[in-house]
Design goal:
alpha/beta; binds iron/sulfur cluster; about 350 residues; TIM Barrel
Length: about 350
């Protein structure tokens, strides 16, 4: 294979590529390793990714109403601003009434999916989550309910699914065990996380995985392992974003991830897994004001406006300078503008995963 056009043709035809062809693309210093100019090659990758998105989903962008309902977490991921050991974090926990009110705001805005996201909060037990999901499902039979509440026993995942949850986001963050051990304390194990993803799949969820780009200790080899893992898991949703430091973590001084490399990975994932629902993540929007549009231009097709009540929104601080609009209306207006400027249109429906047509 020689050149980016041949590689793109190969990716589209086979949905994979040899390690030796992918590794240069995962190297921030790719310019030196590739015969064409990097910018031109990235433009070709992103045009191909947009064509694949169009083939599967049209130029539609799905909206997910995000509610960050608790920032208590018993885990201690070294990169995260709300890790248990961060005593400086201002903690909050929404109760059922506040969450249901936020869900109503999502529904009134016309969105077909709500995402309930939180840390692994010991007071939000499985039974309590189950009752909440059941109540939302009862009030809104057609609303897609996505959960993002971390690792739980398989029986809990099954109970939440039976209560009415449709989708579950659980990013593995890295698929390499040595790298996982660098980013997490010893009691958090990659094997446990991958087991949880398998349990979610077995419970019948649309599953979401994903990883950080540019996290400490990551090289092209780790990124390749991340792609290979996702090719094998075949999740319906994939969230990736640049690593962004938080000042109250062990990685406070670590450099942030490379935006251009992140966008290249979004495009590559669209080519490897054309049916994936790929968000232009908040981390992308934080890394650059133009991050959301750039993500859409790289083949992303999901945006997640934030419906967390304004009084606590700033406290869900996973990394520094997290992007956030002043009001939901302002965020939605900005999203409309961004989606249009990427040549796409908003679809307010549930936006479920769909199989790519043959060819
Ligand atoms: S990344 Fe998630 S699991 Fe890890 S400490 Fe932060 S909120 Fe908890």
């Amino acid at each position: 294979m020689s050149g980016i056009d041949a590689l793109i043709r190969h990716l589209v035809a086979t949905r994979t590529a040899p390690d030796a062809e992918l590794l240069p693309l995962l190297d921030p210093d790719w310019l030196a390793a590739w015969p064409e100019r990097r910018a031109a090659a990235d433009a070709a990758l992103m045009a191909a990714a947009r064509a694949e998105r169009r083939r599967v989903y049209g130029d539609t962008v799905f909206l997910r109403g995000l509610i960050e309902f608790t920032n208590y977490c018993s885990n201690d991921c070294y990169y995260c601003g709300i890790r248990a050991s961060n005593r400086a974090a201002v903690r909050y926990r929404l109760d059922e009434a506040a969450i249901l009110a936020a869900v109503e705001t999502v529904v009134r805005a016309g969105l077909g999916t709500v995402v309930l996201q939180g840390g692994e909060d010991p007071l939000w037990t499985c039974g309590r989550l189950e009752a909440l999901v059941r109540e939302i499902r009862g009030a809104h039979p057609d609303l897609a309910i996505t959960l993002s509440v971390g690792e739980h026993p398989a029986a809990c995942y099954q109970a939440l699914r039976a209560a009415g949850a449709d989708r579950y986001l659980l990013r593995e963050e890295t698929a390499d065990p040595r790298h996982y051990a660098l980013l997490h304390p010893p009691h958090q194990q990659l094997a446990t996380r991958l087991r949880a993803l398998a349990d979610l799949r077995a419970a019948g969820y649309q599953v979401g995985g994903g990883f950080m780009v540019g996290s400490p200790g990551q090289s092209p080899r780790e990124l390749l392992a991340d792609l290979r893992y996702l090719q094998q898991l075949r999740p319906e949703m994939i969230g990736i974003g640049p690593f962004l430091h938080h000042h109250e973590t062990p990685f406070a001084a670590a450099p942030d991830g490379d935006l251009r490399l992140t966008l290249r990975l979004v495009a590559l994932l669209r080519l490897l897994l054309p049916s994936a629902l790929l968000p232009a993540t908040t981390a992308l929007a934080t890394a650059s004001e133009a991050g959301r549009v750039a993500g859409l231009n790289a083949g992303a097709n999901v945006l997640m406006p934030n419906f967390t009540p304004p009084a606590v929104r700033a406290d869900y601080s996973l990394y520094d300078n997290k992007s956030r609009a002043d009001t939901i209306d302002a965020d939605l207006a900005e999203i409309r503008r961004q989606v249009e400027s990427a040549g796409c249109r908003i679809d307010f429906g549930r936006g479920d995963w769909r199989a790519a047509p043959e060819g």
